[in-house]
Amino acid sequence: MELRHLRYFVAVVDAGNFTRAAEQLGISQPPLSQQIQRLEHEIGAPLLRRLTRGVELTDAGKTLYDDAVNILKLTDSALERARSVARGVSGTLRIGFASSTAFNPQVFSLLHRFRESYPGMELLPQEREMSGLMTALADGAIDVAFIRLPCERSKDFACRVIDFEPMVVALPSAHPLAQKEDVALVALKDESLITFPRDVAPSLYDSVIAACNEAGFTPKLGQQSPQVTSAISMVATGFGYAVVPASLGKIDDKNVTCLPLTGPPLITQVALAWRRNDNGKAAMHLLKLL
């Protein structure tokens, strides 16, 4: 049984006769009658009673008609879903986030615009440390990744910088320096610096240590937080201070105060990375929004 046979059969029933059905289908009446006869031959029973002014369904025809309508609806729906996925207007987009990039306002704005532009797309986010993120992108486990530069493995992918984000100092709100408008790193040289594992965010880690060295001191490394974002919680509990991207200052914690740094600005780059020569429509739509 061919799908077109079902379409012809339903068209004849809906039109009420062969002549109108043939006109609607854009074919002549004799080939249409032949296709219906083939369908009846395959089923082994007549489906239509040919009347003087039209057609009438037999019992077998009534049963087939209901099922045929449902089959055609399912088929049309499946085709449309497949076409939507192919156009990148439905389906899924797997997005990786390096630690703390999800808080960046440019990242948030881009994803918000993507959801407004492609409401049929499902976004599947996941956060990983940088090395795991790069491996997931290379292996095709994710489609795009928001990362922080510089990153050695980022050279294997196409990247576009979307924001230059300043770093700030996070202090316990009860700290004497928390009442100032800004703070110099050297003023904290005798206090514990809360860090995170370097493989979580290599560029952030290296830039913080380098900034301390350039300020004339070797930082006193204190308790280590598992992620960049969890450093805020550790500051709140009094473990020390942390140097974090400014967007983390949006985390609402009354026990933490974030202050700008004096001296040369300490900047981290936020970038979108994707596989070169990857023509996935959903990922390309995201890039176009940039």
From TrEMBL:
Protein's UniProt keywords contain DNA-binding: yes
UniProt-listed SUPFAM superfamilies: Periplasmic binding protein-like II, Winged helix' DNA-binding domain
Database matches in Pfam families: HTH_1, LysR_substrate
Sorted UniProt keywords: DNA-binding, Transcription, Transcription regulation
Statement: the UniProt record of this protein carries the keyword Magnesium: no
HTH lysR-type domain residues: 1-58
PROSITE patterns tied to this protein: HTH_LYSR (PS50931)
InterPro entries documented for this protein: BudR_PBP2, LysR_HTH_N, LysR_subst-bd, WH-like_DNA-bd_sf, WH_DNA-bd_sf
Family recorded in the similarity comment: Belongs to the LysR transcriptional regulatory family.
PANTHER family: SMALL NEUTRAL PROTEASE REGULATORY PROTEIN, TRANSCRIPTIONAL DUAL REGULATOR HCAR-RELATED
Protein name per UniProt: Transcriptional regulator
Source species: Hafnia psychrotolerans
